[in-house]
Amino acid sequence: MAGCSVFDPAGDRVGKVRDALVVYRADSSPRVVGLIVEVPGKRRVFLSIGRVMSIGAGQVITTGLINLRRFAQRGGEVRVIAELLGRRMRLRDGSGEATVEDVAITESAPGEWEIEQVYLRRPKTSASPFGKGQSTFAEWKDLQEQSTAGESQSAEHLVAQYSELQAADLATTLLDLPQQRMFDVVDEMPDERLADALEEMPEDDQVQILTHLDQDRAADVLDRMQPDDAADLIAQLPEEQGEALLELMEPEEAEDVRLLLSFGQDTAGGLMTTEPIIVSADATVAEGLALIRRHELAPALGAAICVVLPPYEPPTGRFLGMVHFQRMLRYPPHERLGTLLDSNLDPVTPETSLAEVSRILASYDLVSVPVVDEKHRLLGVVTIDDVLDHLLPDDWRSHPDEPSKPAAAVSTDTSSITTRRRSADGPRTTRR
Questions:
Q1: Please, where are the H alpha helices in 142-214?
Q2: What are phi and psi of 128, to 5 degrees?
């Protein structure tokens, strides 16, 4: 069901299923109380199972009544994908233990759904790193949950479920998990993927996760973050801890972060990215376009190329100018970039204020502006996303609950919106 589309009776798409919510019962299998649905705007809301008319053929049909307030988990509720998958179970027939990889829900009565079967994976018996244990099916009544105090729940299956999420969506999904489950997932995530998610989280949550990691892994994750994001994160740590992490980081990455930490947070030096595209004046249009086509390059950094004298690593030789990618498209592949410089774009200094950088970007319709030192050497560029992160309010990723806007977005009649009391105490803030 994960990822299935949710429709109202008129056939209008409401959102996508992201998880199912169950409650345990002492004398029978867990009962499904509702679905967690992601509606436009990346908002996750609760859909009561009583509002579900049918489930099947890769889609869920609802009555059209849906509470658009942000979902908040209650005590005693368990999310199937986020919390149940990966749990260890003991089979009551004495055949050993196995790990939950999936569950099947069945409609036991009109409007009543419960977990009936569980898909399990037994421990592998082979020494091969690519081997897997035998799979098996079992009824819920034939299982007994097995856990050891202090033992982490396996998050391998959950990490795989999240592999296709965009970084911002992954960050939100992680922060919605119970704390211990979030740490379980973080422990099994690749460093690069975790770095991407951390860049999209609020500072307090960044610090919480980084503090959970051992120092060696924390340094590895910081190495994979953008230098400006890593600098913002280290600035939130106690000075002694931050210095220890800098010592463990790769020397080149640590040098960039130290440079950014030397400037004020609300200045061009504190906002800039130290990894723009840098080329010589003799580079051609073909070479420039090849550089901006790289998949991992952020769009704002790919909008223009910096042309400098050697050396070509910040701080570079003398900064000559920038070439915008649109201008490159107007010239033949063999044209030298040194002849295409934007003569109207003046660089800023590291001490330039955030307000002045914002004015320059807005006045000249730019997405980035170069930063140079007193010797006119290129230090980095300030991109529009760096500026917006500081100008927008702290809660810019999570807006207060405004039923009228989400209702229009999901094509649901506003008169059908219910007002069930199921919301968090307030919006989650997600500013870097």
A1: 156-161, 167-176, 179-188, 191-198, 203-212
A2: -65, 135
